[in-house]
Amino acid sequence: METRRQGISLITAICLFIGTLVVIQLWLVAAALDAWLAGESGVLVPAALASVGLFGLNVGLLAYVRAFDARLKQTQDHG
Amino acid sequence: MSEPRPRWKQDFPIKWENDHYVTRRELAKFLTLGSALLVGASALIALVGRLRRKPATPRIRLPGASQLAPGESLLFRYPTDEDPCLLVRGRDGRWLAFSQVCTHLSCAIVYRPQRDALFCPCHHGVFSVAEGVPTAGPPTRRLPRIRLEEWGGELWAVGVEV
After folding, report:
1. Do B80 and B103 fall into the same domain?
2. What is residue B80's DSSP assignment?
3. In sequence order, what are the beta bridge partners of B134?
4. Under an 8 A CB cutoff, do B25 and A11 touch?
5. Is the CB of A48 less than 8 angstroms away from the CB of B24?
6. Domain check: are B22 and B39 in the same one?
7. Domain housing A42
8. Which of A72, B27, B62, B124 sits 20 to 30 Å CA-CA off B33?
9. CB distance A55–B34 less than 8 Å?
10. Of B35, B41, B54, the CB nearest to A54
């Protein structure tokens, strides 16, 4: 049975993880922009694909948070 | 026996636990939204990078190049009038040309025939004449090289290798 206290710990950990992935995405954007301005176009598509992969991971984590939230509401409604 | 609830708790009945839960859940949503925006930025950069065509490099004759003796250099501008370049005739008689802009902090480099090297007087950066790669001092990136062709008894600048 899920509780809000568990949810705070879980979502805090997930927020930290998503934040780390967003920082990596930010670095990818900066590196891609730097390469583009230097006239090197070979790394732009791999950087964009890596960013899409990280976004997919973030969406998965958010989906898990939403599922947890739904289960928590269900528990509270029945409790 | 439990103590009576203080008045302020009756006035503000929101529990901190609930508040933390909701704000962190919302933070996760906003971080994911930020992630989506960064994907958009990366995709836009990749798209623009693929669509942008390399500008056609002009073909410019370098008058006076044939008069250069080994160990001498000549200034010219390529591909536009805003881009100073240095034509060098090495000790072996080969012609080589590089951008004159130092890759460290954009000072103008000069040719030092005594050392057969390109020298930046601002911070004492040194580049090799053969490849334009940094061999001493603060620069870490090579100089853009100007491609040369001999045609009709003249020397021509025909492109830039970054």
Report:
1. yes
2. S
3. B127
4. yes
5. no
6. yes
7. 4-78
8. A72
9. no
10. B35
User: In this structure, are B156 and B103 located in the same domain?
Assistant: yes
Q: Are residues B146 and B159 in contact, defined by beta-carbon separation less than 8 angstroms?
A: yes
pLDDT band at B54 (very low <50, low <70, confident <90, very high): low
Distance from CA of B16 to the nearest CA of A (A): 11
Q: Are residues B95 and B155 located together in one domain of the fold?
A: yes
Contact B123, B98 (CB under 8 A): no
Is B43's CB within 8 Å of A55's CB? no
Domain span including residue B103 = 60-161
How much is the ipTM here? Answer: 0.90
Query: CA-CA-CA-CA torsion for A52, A56, A62, A63, nearest 10 degrees?
Result: 150
CB contact under 8 A, A48 and B35: no
**B65 shares its domain with B127:** yes
Q: What is the CATH number of the domain that holds B93?
A: 2.102.10.10
Q: Are residues B153 and B80 in the same domain?
A: yes
Instruction: Count structural domains, chain B.
Output: 2
| Chain B residues inside the 8 Å CB shell of A26 | 38
Across the range B131-158, mean pLDDT stands at: 92
pLDDT grade for A1, boundaries at 50, 70 and 90: low
A18, A32, A38 member nearest B31 (Cβ)? A18
For residues B103 and B141, membership in a common domain is answered with: yes
Calculate mean pLDDT across residues B68-87: 91
B68 and B46 both lie in a single domain = no
pLDDT tens digit sequence for A46-75: 999 999 999 999 999 999 998 988 888 888
Q: Taking Cα atoms as reference points, which of A44, A48, A56, A71 lies closest to residue A18?
A: A56
Q: Are B75 and B50 in contact (CB under 8 A)?
A: no
Which of B30, B42, B161 to mutate: most A Cβ within 10 Å?
B42
